[in-house]
Amino acid sequence: MKRNLSNASVISLITAAIITVSTLFVPWWGMKFYAPQYPEGLDIIVYPSTLAGDIDIVNSLNHYIGMAIFSNESFPELQWMPYIVIAFFVLILIVALLRRKSFLYGLIALFVIGGIIGIWDMYRWLKEFGTNLDPMAPIELEPFIPPIIGENTIANFVTHSYFLFGGYLLVLVFILLVFPLWKDRAK
Amino acid sequence: MTTKRIISAVLGIVAGLLVAVVFFADFNQASENASGDLKSKAEKVYVPYGELDEYYMMSSGGHSGQLFVYGIPSMRKIRTVPIFTPDPATGYGYSKETKEMLGGFTWGDFHHPAISETAGDYDGEFLFANDVGNNRVAAVDLSTFTTVDIMSLPNMGGPHAGVFVTENTEYIALPTRFARPLDNKYADLDKYEEEYKGVVSMTTFDKETKKFDLAYQIVLPPWSYDLSDAGKKMSGDWIVMTTYNSEFATTNLEINASQNDRDYIVLVNWKKLEEEVAAGNYHDVNGAKMIDPRDHKGAIYAVPVAKSPHGVDVTPDGTRYIAAGKLAPMMTVFSFEKTFEAIEKEDFTDEKFGIPVLSYESVMEREVDPPGALGPLHTQFDDKGNAYNTMFISSEIVKWNIETGEVIDRTPSYFSPGHAAAAEGDTVSPDGKWLVSLNKISKDNFLSVGPSHPESMDLIDISGEKMEHIMAVPVDPEPHYAQIVHRDKIKTVTVYEKDENRENSVWKQEDARVERKGDEVHVYGIAMRSRFIFDAQSDRPDAVTVKEGDRVFFHLTNIDLDQDITHGFGINEYDLNFEVQPGQTSTLEFVADKAGVYPIYCTNFCSALHQEMSGYLLVEPK
C-alpha cells in the first residue's frame, strides 16, 4: 500500500479526530433573543444531541405568533447526529492510519458535503419554523426566516444567531484535514 | 497724577479683595465637595435605576397584620407581605393552605418582627411575627417572603413582649401582656392576684419542615410583660423582660398601674428551664408544658427598675441590658456581670411573689438622664459603643455612649417615635449606618388625606459623630418595630422549583384533567401565558362544569417558569381570587353553592394576551 502522508499530517489528522469527537460535548450553534423585558436575553443553545437554554420560555412566547414547539423530539437530527460525529471520528482515524492521500481527498469531500447538508438542514428548519406559522395564532406576523448567522427582528424581539464553540471547532477540524494536502504537497 | 490715582485705586481694590479672601473665603469647601463628604440629603437616599438599596427594612404592620418591606436608604416601600390578614392580591387567605393557616381569623396585631439568628447575627432565613390580638406566632420564609406557618398559643393574653429569638434561634419567645386565668378558665377580677397569670411561650421552629412547636410555657406573676430581649454571648442563656403593673391593678391601668415607684426587669434562665422541662418537671396545662420558674433555684430573678419601664435591650456585646423608663424618664444601664455576681452572693433585697429581687445598687451601672428628654422607649445600637433612644414625649432621638453615659447628640423626630431600628442594630455586630425612627404621628408633614393622618418614619444618618436627619416618609398604620438587615443576607428564589412529584401538580398541557370523586370535583389544571387549561381532552379546555352543591378543588400549577410571570385566578361573584407564582401549585377549595355561569379570569397581569386568559365555571342547577 502506498503510504504518502507524513508524520506531521498523521498527527494533524489524529488531532482532528479527537476534536471531532469532543464537539459532542459542546454547543454548536445558538440564538439569543432580546426584548425590553428580557434585557438579559433568552437563549437557545444547540448541542449535537440536545437543545438547551430557555427553551420553555421561548416556546411560551412563540405560541403568541403560532410558531411550532421547539423540543428535542421536533428535531430527529438530534437523535442520530452523535452517530455521524462518531462516524467521522472513525473515518478520520482510518485515513490517518492508512496514510493514503486519495482517501483523504474522499474524507474532505465527505466533510464538505456533510457541512453543506448540515447548513442546508438548519436553513430548512429555520424556514419551516419561521414561515409555517399557525394561522390561528393570536398575533399575526409576516412569515420570516431567521438567519443562520446574524441579526433579525421579530416583533419586539431582536434575535442574534451565531455559531458556538463546537461550530468553530468543526472549522478547525476542516483546517486540520486540509493541512496534510499542503504539508505533503508534491515538490 | 491721574495714573497715580488709578494705581492707588487698583491697589486699594486688590488689598480689599485680599483681606476679604483671607477672612471670608472657605478654602476647604472646594476640596470637601470634591471628596463627596458633603453629599446632599437627596443624594444620600437616591438609588439610581439599575442599582438596589443596601438594606431591607422589615417593618411590622401592627393591627394591619402585615409586614411592610422597605428599601434603605431610599425608603421605597417594596412589598406588603400578608401574615395575619387575608390578602386577595396574593390570594393569601383564599387558597386552601393559607386559609387553614389563618384559622378563621381576619386580623392580627403584629408588633415585633424577629429575623432568625445564628450566633446572635441575622441569618436572613426566616422572620417571626407575634399576634398580640389573637395569641399567635407566625413564620415568614425570607426566600419567598411568604408566611409558611402560624401557631396559636394557649394560656396567653396577648404576647406583646415578643417575638424575640435566642442567640441561635433555639427559641422564639413570646411573653404575655395581659394576665389571664390559665386554661381559658373563668375567674373574677377580684381574684386577679391569685388566679390570673402571666405566661411566656417558648416556641421552636423547624427550618426543614417549616413548622412551629410549643416547647414549653413559663408561668409568671400577673404583671404585664411589656418588652423583652434575649441575652447574647456571656448572657446567652438568659432572657430579660420589663414589667409594669406590679400593683396588680385591674382597672384604669394608666393610673393604678403607675403607683409603685419601682417595677421590675425579670430575668429568666431559659437554659435551666429547658433542662427541667426535659427532666419532666412541668404540668400539663391546656396541652402546654407549663413550668413555674420559682420551683427551680436559679431560674428566675427580678431587678427593680424605675417605674413603668418600656424597652429593655441587650447591648451587642451581651454584657449589659438597658431599660428605658417610660414614666421615669431616663435610661438605666445594668451589668450582667454584676447581676451574676449578685446572684452568686445571693444579694437579694426582697422577694416578690417568690421571686428573689436583686439589689438595684449592686447590679446597676449608671442612669442616663438627658435634661428635658421625656418618654424614653427603646434602645438601638451602633458599631462604636453608642446607644440611640427614642423619646416618645419629647419627640427626639438621643445618642449617648454606653460606657460613659455621656450624651453625644440629640435630633428631633416628626413626631412621637415609638421604636427605632438601626441597621443590624440589635445584633452582635450593628452596622452603624442608618437609623429609622418609627413615629406614631405625622401631623401635617404630607398631603392631607382627611382626618386620618399616616404614621411616619424618619431616616437618620448615624454614620458620623452627629446624627443627620435625612428624610421623613409616610407609612400605613401602624408599624411598631422594624429590623434592618443587609441585603446580602437575604437569598430569595425567583421561580419555584419545578417539582414533578409535587402533590396535585401538573406540568404538561396534555395532563390537565378534571376528576370527580363523589360530590368532590378536582381540577388539575395549569396556568400559562396566556390561558388556563383545566381539561386537555375537552373541546373547551378552559371551562369546568360542576353540579350545584359540589365541593370544587382547583389545583392550579403555573408552568411558566419565567421570572415575574404570576398568574391570578378570580371567579366572578364567588368572592374568590388567588394567585400562582411561576412554578407554584396552589389549591382553591370551595362549595359551588350558587347555580349559574361564572366567568373565571387571570387577575394578575401576565402578558399582552392577559385579557384573553379566561374561562368559565358552569354550575348546573340541582
What does this structure look like?
Chain A contains five helices and five strands; from the N terminus they run αβββαααββα. With 187 residues, chain A is of the alpha+beta class. Chain A has one domain. In chain A, strand 1 (29-35) and strand 2 (38-46) form a beta hairpin. The longest helix of chain A has 31 residues, at 101-131. Chain A starts with 6 loop residues before the first helix and ends with a helix. Chain B has two domains: 55-489, Methylamine Dehydrogenase, Chain H (7 Propeller), CATH 2.130.10; 509-620, Immunoglobulin-like (Sandwich), CATH 2.60.40. In chain B, a hairpin with a 4-residue loop joins strand 26 and strand 27 (396-401). The radius of gyration of chain B is 29 Å and the shape is flat. In chain B, 46% of the residues are buried. Chain A binds chain B through residues 56-57, 60-61, 63-64, 138-139, and chain B through 528-530, 559-562, 607-609, 612. Chain B: Its EC number is 1.7.2.4. Chain B: It is found in: Periplasm. Chain B: InterPro entries: CcO_II-like_C, Cupredoxin, EfeO_Cupredoxin, N2O_reductase_N, N2OR_C, Nitrous_oxide_Rdtase_Sec-dep, Nos_propeller, NosZ/Cyto_c_oxidase_sub2. Chain B: GO terms for molecular function: copper ion binding; cytochrome-c oxidase activity; nitrous-oxide reductase activity. Chain B: This is Nitrous-oxide reductase.
